[in-house]
Amino acid sequence: MQEYKNISLQGLWHNNPALVQLLGLCPLLAVTATITNAMGLGLATMLVLIGSNLTVSLVRNWVPKEIRIPVFVMVIAAFVTVIQLIMNAYFYGLYQALGIFIPLIVTNCAIIGRAEAYASKNPWRQSAFDGLMMGVGFTLVLMTLGGLREIIGNGTLFDGAELLLGEWATALRIELFTVDYPLLLAILPPGAFIGMGFIIALKNAIDHYREQHASKPEKQVTRARVTAQS
Amino acid sequence: MTFRIAPAPHTKPARSTGQVMRLVCYALIPGALAHYVIFGPGIIIQLLLATITAVATEFLFTQARRRTSHNTLADYSAVVTAVLLALSIPSLAPWWIIVIGTVFSIGIVKHLYGGIGQNIFNPAMAGYVVLLVSFPLQMTSWPLPAELSNFSVSFYDATQLIFSGYTADGYNVQQLKAGVDGISMATPLDTLKTGLSQQLTTPEITNNPIFSGIAGVGWQLLNAAFLLGGLALIATRVISWHIPVGLMLGLAVPALIGSAIAPDQSIGLFMHLFGGATMLGAFFIATDPVSAATSNRGRLYFGLLIGFLVYVIRTWGGYPDGVAFAVLLANMCVPIIDKYSQPTVYGHKGSSS
């Protein structure tokens, strides 16, 4: 149980793919203009991560070391194709909104990073769980950034959520305030970079605060004997 | 009598940061006056708003960073940033434009990078670019120069416009922009750029009443005023000549070549030098001692790069003027310029400059 708890902590906080490893920044910055897009891409990435981690872990003993990267990429590409076709069939509006960034999940370094760093060395249960936790961590960061940018840029939350969640989700749309002239910067790519910088800074500040206020273990004083024992 | 022996260095800088920044403020007075004469009293409100916001932001951020607010407020650097930003934006823009821009300039571009002396980007121009990208309509709505305008905007009208968007008579900025014949007019550079994109030739476009003189009504006077203030800065040795000269060379040489090759499809030399924000940029913005190159040779390259980028953006870019973008792009190149223009230490082989 301790192992799974550790994996969760690593994925959600200490080794978060977006905040600490800074992997997969391309989709992170490109599609987080609204929280719905962010959630859609986050979920898609998470499913691919679970699938690829599981598969890579299962075949890890039969893949020669020399050609492991092409094999990983093909596994990932297969899962991305599956997700892409599913989204095309069931979430067409979101599929169009995310556009090229769904097939580009293949090149998301977070996925191949986990396949290489974790799944190719660990049993399948832990690998699949690692994929889930890394995916959840990535999705949460995407949603935070998407939410921030949507609030600052549009004054809304969950705009267009029905594209992902079905008709009932139109009720989720929250209009926080209306602006005549939205702060376009927040919606444009530079806003994503600046927002991401702030989120990383916040995470570091929290870590710093906790480190300073953590109860320090009692210092073990070991004295070296300098005088000869009589 | 006792001799106090202070530790090295024994030479004293000629001026403190505060004195330099105050001199820059004084040198901006001719430009601000010209601005007032040409575009009306809105500039006073913008200057006040910008300065108050800048000082407040500076105070809050130094407090949050647990620094002493007194020193940073007393060096006037925030005031200079605020004044430059206020002079860069249209004088009748709504109040929140200048407030957002100043908070971004001081808070994010300056203090998040470590305060004065640490910022890699010019704060005023970064704030300007944020505003231009975020609010393109307000940031390009320059009022008409007074001599062309149907309306004379009083101080009361300007206050009303900035804080509510309408004058007491119910006109908004767009209506005030309408010229004598009721046709809305843009800035000279903007008009020229739009005309050129519609396949008009430069002589055809410059028949427009906004182009009298060498670089358009109002703007030539504004640039001349900034040139005057800038020359005063060089004369008092607050700035060196390298950046302004480099910038103007970098702009003038391509402009001359361009107008020699295609005189009907290019922006003329005087239009380049005395239109838009060229002089303000050359003497006051690019010469920011923090974000510019450090050696004299480097400063020359830095200026040349900005001038060339301004030409490129004005000729082929999407925006009518490009000083702000050019300065930010050149700021990014400063480390590499500094690396390759490092002067040789005296006594070492090689050329020293």
UniProtKB/TrEMBL annotation, chain A:
<dbReference type="InterPro" id="IPR003667">
    <property type="entry name" value="NqrDE/RnfAE"/>
</dbReference>
<keyword id="KW-0997">Cell inner membrane</keyword>
<feature type="transmembrane region" description="Helical">
    <location>
        <begin position="181"/>
        <end position="202"/>
    </location>
</feature>
<comment type="similarity">
    <text>Belongs to the NqrDE/RnfAE family.</text>
</comment>
<keyword id="KW-0472">Membrane</keyword>
<keyword id="KW-1003">Cell membrane</keyword>
<feature type="transmembrane region" description="Helical">
    <location>
        <begin position="12"/>
        <end position="35"/>
    </location>
</feature>
<dbReference type="Pfam" id="PF02508">
    <property type="entry name" value="Rnf-Nqr"/>
</dbReference>
<dbReference type="GO" id="GO:0012505">
    <property type="term" value="C:endomembrane system"/>
</dbReference>
<feature type="transmembrane region" description="Helical">
    <location>
        <begin position="41"/>
        <end position="59"/>
    </location>
</feature>
<comment type="subunit">
    <text>The complex is composed of six subunits: RnfA, RnfB, RnfC, RnfD, RnfE and RnfG.</text>
</comment>
<keyword id="KW-1278">Translocase</keyword>
<feature type="transmembrane region" description="Helical">
    <location>
        <begin position="127"/>
        <end position="148"/>
    </location>
</feature>
<dbReference type="InterPro" id="IPR010968">
    <property type="entry name" value="RnfE"/>
</dbReference>
<feature type="transmembrane region" description="Helical">
    <location>
        <begin position="97"/>
        <end position="115"/>
    </location>
</feature>
<dbReference type="GO" id="GO:0022900">
    <property type="term" value="P:electron transport chain"/>
</dbReference>
<keyword id="KW-0812">Transmembrane</keyword>
<keyword id="KW-0249">Electron transport</keyword>
<comment type="function">
    <text>Part of a membrane-bound complex that couples electron transfer with translocation of ions across the membrane.</text>
</comment>
<protein>
    <recommendedName>
        <fullName>Ion-translocating oxidoreductase complex subunit E</fullName>
        <ecNumber>7.-.-.-</ecNumber>
    </recommendedName>
</protein>
<dbReference type="GO" id="GO:0005886">
    <property type="term" value="C:plasma membrane"/>
</dbReference>
<keyword id="KW-1133">Transmembrane helix</keyword>
From TrEMBL, chain B:
<keyword id="KW-0472">Membrane</keyword>
<keyword id="KW-0597">Phosphoprotein</keyword>
<feature type="transmembrane region" description="Helical">
    <location>
        <begin position="20"/>
        <end position="38"/>
    </location>
</feature>
<feature type="transmembrane region" description="Helical">
    <location>
        <begin position="210"/>
        <end position="234"/>
    </location>
</feature>
<dbReference type="InterPro" id="IPR011303">
    <property type="entry name" value="RnfD_bac"/>
</dbReference>
<dbReference type="GO" id="GO:0005886">
    <property type="term" value="C:plasma membrane"/>
</dbReference>
<keyword id="KW-0285">Flavoprotein</keyword>
<keyword id="KW-1003">Cell membrane</keyword>
<feature type="modified residue" description="FMN phosphoryl threonine">
    <location>
        <position position="187"/>
    </location>
</feature>
<keyword id="KW-0812">Transmembrane</keyword>
<dbReference type="InterPro" id="IPR004338">
    <property type="entry name" value="NqrB/RnfD"/>
</dbReference>
<feature type="transmembrane region" description="Helical">
    <location>
        <begin position="95"/>
        <end position="113"/>
    </location>
</feature>
<feature type="transmembrane region" description="Helical">
    <location>
        <begin position="73"/>
        <end position="89"/>
    </location>
</feature>
<keyword id="KW-1278">Translocase</keyword>
<keyword id="KW-0997">Cell inner membrane</keyword>
<comment type="function">
    <text>Part of a membrane-bound complex that couples electron transfer with translocation of ions across the membrane.</text>
</comment>
<feature type="transmembrane region" description="Helical">
    <location>
        <begin position="125"/>
        <end position="144"/>
    </location>
</feature>
<comment type="subunit">
    <text>The complex is composed of six subunits: RnfA, RnfB, RnfC, RnfD, RnfE and RnfG.</text>
</comment>
<feature type="transmembrane region" description="Helical">
    <location>
        <begin position="298"/>
        <end position="317"/>
    </location>
</feature>
<dbReference type="GO" id="GO:0022900">
    <property type="term" value="P:electron transport chain"/>
</dbReference>
<feature type="transmembrane region" description="Helical">
    <location>
        <begin position="241"/>
        <end position="261"/>
    </location>
</feature>
<dbReference type="GO" id="GO:0055085">
    <property type="term" value="P:transmembrane transport"/>
</dbReference>
